[in-house]
Amino acid sequence: RNFANKAWNAARFVITSLADEAVEPPQPGQRQGMPLEDRWIMSRLHRLIGDVEKLLSAFQVGEAGRQAHDFFWGEFCDWYIEMAKVRLKAGDPSPLPILAHVLDTSLRLLHPFMPFVTEAIWQNLRSHLRPPQAEALIVAPWPKANKRWQDKEAEAQAQAVMDVVRAIRNIRAERGVEPVRYVEAYLVVDGMHEAAEASRLIIETLARVRPLHIVDGTGAAPRERVITAVLRDVQVVVPLAGLFDLEAERA
What we know:
Layout: H1 2-18, H2 36-57, H3 61-89, H4 95-110, H5 115-125, H6 152-174, E1 183-189, H7 193-198, H8 200-207, E2 209-215, E3 226-230, E4 234-239, H9 246-250
Parallel strand pairs: 1-2
Antiparallel strand pairs: 1-4, 3-4
Helix pairs in contact: 1-3, 1-4, 1-5, 2-3, 2-4, 2-6, 3-4, 3-8, 4-5
Protein name: valine--tRNA ligase
Organism: marine sediment metagenome
Pfam families: Anticodon_1 (PF08264)
């Protein structure tokens, strides 16, 4: 039931965001000009399609369903939709074709495992898809993996961005920082300065960080009275002074 609610909520957001618009699916030739998060989710989607196809061919139906479920909940809903909201709120409609396409493809992959819910959602989505679609999801074509979408570099960089957001959220939670409060943070990057800068607004919004300093060496970040999280490609440094209201603590 929880997953069905998650699917309904995600679909409602996508369909509401599309309004009266109908969108074409993204094409691999557009990949190089896409933001990092778009390249990441499309790469993960097409990797999933190939994996699910192999698992079903090997009669590993349960594992195929688990992977489709985990992608939809953990990557599309929890991460990509939240990243897309940042751009949509800034007046950028470019995530809409990706949102519609990933939702459409995910529903097709999930249909054998939860046919009634996916059919009901897809009937509300199909008028927003171009070219015209089948009358019902059950007779719609099964997705095909396209290796031209696979992008290991985008997957690694997006994972690093998500790790940064998680690390800052964990620091906030451990220190009891109010959800509405922004904190200052430094990112000491190692070879991914460009990706970090491109994802600045997403990190600032999802981790509630302001200001965010992206620096190339540890010497540019403070070393005293800080909390540090060492990740694979990034070091997160959060000054203690930004985690609480000093005057309120003194009072």
